Fold these 2 entries.
Entry 1:
Amino acid sequence: MPDGTTIIIANWKMALDVIESQSLTRKLVAAYEHDLRESRVRLALCPSYDSLSVVGQQLKNTQIALGAQDVFWQEKGAYTGEISASMLRALGVSYVIIGHSERRKYLHEDDQMVNQKIKAAFAAGLTPVLCVGETYAERTAGNTDLVIMRQVIEGLKGIPLTPERQLVVAYEPVWVIGTGQAIQPPMAEHSSHLIRQALIDLYPVAVVQQQTRIIYGGSVDEQNILSYISLPLMKGALVGGASITAEKFIPLLARIASYGHDAS
Ligand code: PGA
């Protein structure tokens, strides 16, 4: 992935139904094809499960990738309500968000579950987007670094990065998600270095350089996006609230495209 591109992963959470997802996708495809096709901005859309198929059809023959918001670790069987990595793959999914803080909080996902999901995602040829980040209580207790290191190391434990695998790690400080109050870029930069260090503890440096990418998430918007993606180790962003309307998301993408252009 060290190709100078910036990836923007849109996490639509449970915000849009099929009709709304379809409508937003139509606008984004048009904007992307018109303004961003030649830029170094790569885009992945993660609608909710009910919209994956429809949005996947709309993204066919475009440069925009399809992503899912979660996956189950088993391949097939009696697991009511779950979806396997190969089922996602069959819908054209290429990225999957794993270990999002909302799932860790509301569904009690732990590092072991996250680890199994990452294994399953790789086995099906998907690119996992491993989400890590501290809560406010963990930060104020001085445990930020420990939590981030633990989530990366436990999440990836025993998982080799064979040459065809790509990994995205999203640093998302839990306490700023959805608040409109993003963290100071130096704090994000500090965490990106920690994540990089954890990855280097697990994998050869060349593999980390070529097959991994660290991104930032948490109240990213048009105004602050450049302050994160201009950090040396941040190669993109995971965007929630600002990605669910064309009015907010298209200007955000355009801002990155013009930055990439200026910098080249
Ligand atoms: P937010 O969400 O941009 O609305 O803070 C980001 C996320 O939860 O991935």
Entry 2:
Amino acid sequence: MSPQSPFASTSTPTVAARPRVFSGIQPSGELHIGNYLGAVRTWRQQIEENKEDTLFCVVDAHAITVPYEAAELRRRIDGFAIDLIACGVDPDKTTLFVQSDVREHTELAWYLSSVTPMGDLHRMTQFKEKGEGKDFVSSALFTYPVLMSADILLYKATVVPVGEDQIQHLELARETSRRFNHRFGEVFPEPKPRLSTTPRVMGLDGDSKMSKSKGNTISLFEPEESFWGKLRTAYTDPQRLQLSDPGRPEICNIYTMHKAVSPKTTQDEVVANCTGAAWGCVDCKKVLFENFNRELIPLRRKREALSLPQVREALGDGAAKARRIAQATMKEVRERMGLGSLASSTVG
Ligand code: TYM
């Protein structure tokens, strides 16, 4: 037996040397332009700036909270990893991995559920949206935000680049960090969201945000023809019934996307030609399509050049790097919570 009691631990919390960034994406449906403009493009910028330690994760354990096919999930994990790398989430410059390859995520989620009140989970709007009217609602869908808190806190991340729809979950993660620290001593920092300039891209139907579960998306790597086919019919300003009606760019999703991908001079042109009724909506969409293409052509080329074995190897390396951080945090967490035998407290 080791001479030191696990309950008399004097370990000081491990602190990241540089600010740490963590974010994730579910491998369900296809990577769409909302994901890209709301989150993934910001990830690339942060990797390129290289001022922070970054970890990005394909969160497969989140994707099993709704009914799914196992073979399909496996295919999507590969597909999302390929798409992310094509978007510039370069595994040579960041840590890119698959969530379930690092088992500590689910372990920490269980422990954090002991400091998460049911009432907080009942307030989560995403649970209400995804569960509403369904015959089967899993308990995993209900506790989903606890796993998300674990994803972030496991790496002691302080910055979480996400779209606006994830802010409520981030608030819960912050609250969970405070609750844990209050109960067991200072272990976790408080993570904050980092929003892109396009934190909410609306769906093609104009009714709600672009979302994999709503079928109102344009996939980022959709063939050009169908990309244009979908963009052409996308919802715009409902008050603009005829070409001679002046439009309102500030409420139009097409303008939101112009602001994300078109140069400033084009954005100004859009405002002038829309409010002045000089362009029809299809004209405006054609210009947007050209600018999307300018941005996406290099990404498409990169995607074609990637090989699956290479990508899988990179994911394995990414998981090994992530695991090292995760194991150090879990050692600390188990000690603080009084968990485990003396033998297990001395191993990773
Ligand atoms: P997910 O997979 O739904 O989406 C991935 C990222 O894309 C953003 N996003 C959008 N941004 C702008 N407009 C839209 N229409 C749009 N749709 C999606 C999301 O905000 C997200 O940033 N719960 C998360 C995944 C997750 C996670 C995490 C994120 C699990 N653990 C830890 C951050 C940290 C989700 O379902 O994202």
